[in-house]
Structure formats: C-alpha cells, structure tokens
C-alpha cells in the first residue's frame, strides 16, 4: 500500500520517519557557478516523443561488485549503518530522503531515483543512443544521477522534469537543480524552454 501524506505524518509521530541532520550525497555535485555555466551550455529544444520507449532499453540494475547491483550499492552509499546479507540485500540501516526529509529503517521504503528519469532522457536525446550507453546512464554511480529517496515521493515524480515536479522539501531545490543540470550536461541531453526556466529558478535559490 502506498504511503500517504497522512500516514507519513503518523509514521513521523511514531518515530519511524523523522528528520535527520544529514544524508549521504551522490558524487560530483557541481558548484552553483559550474551548474549555471553547464545550464547555459545545454541545447534548448522541444522534447521528443516517447515512441519506442521502454525501461528495458535502459538495462538496470546491473552487477557492480560481487553480488551487489546498482540499487544495493546506492543503498549502502546513501544509508547509515547499513548491514547486508550474503546476497548484498540490506537487512538493516537507515536512509534519509532529502526530497522530503523523512528517514526510513526499511530498505523497501526507499527507491533509487534516476534524478533525470529514463523516459525524460529518452525524450531529450537518449532515444538515439546505443543500449550500452543507455545502460551506463541508468547505472551512473560516478555522477549525481542516482539517489535514495522515499518510495512514494519518487513515484509521485514519475518522469516529470522540474517544470512540473520539484522535491517537497524546498530547502533541497538548489541541490536538486544542480544535480539535474549536471546530469543533463554530462550526458549531452537537451532541455526544453520550460525546463530551463524552472532550472534557472532552482539555481537562483542557491
């Protein structure tokens, strides 16, 4: 069953989802100045269609090391005191979601968000990529494209860009803008005009 706003507040009252002082952050988040330069360098164009798109064209989660796949690697990176079993599944730990300020103690309550969603990437240039390049994008651990967040918050985002969806926690908007811009820049993806305007607004909050 999906968590609702009411149930999140109730869980918070029970002490199972509470604000944490800090969270692990994905690598290579650019400075504000760098993000603004990268945004200015992005090609502005109308979004393409979703014709031909499927998540299977972005193979994930792939094996990273031993028994650990990309999802499990990010869970360990972004969590606190994470314990895993022999199959690399997280059996305990805590995860702070910077999108909404909640902390979860069950890995099943956490999604690994593709900050730039796979469908959004498809519409903004990835439709012409090879499957290998799409796989690299979908499992990008070297850039700030993957982050552990509350599952139903990630589901509410879907494949929307910042013109249509922003994290509920407004204090994270600056960081979210920098991450989104850098991922689009790193992977040579385009932005549409409304998206660029929204990103400019996010970076102006930094």
From TrEMBL:
Residues 105-200 form the GmrSD restriction endonucleases C-terminal domain. The keyword Signal applies. Residues 1-24 form the signal peptide. It holds the Pfam family GmrSD_C. The keyword Membrane does not apply. InterPro entries: GmrSD_C. Keywords: Signal. This is GmrSD restriction endonucleases C-terminal domain-containing protein.
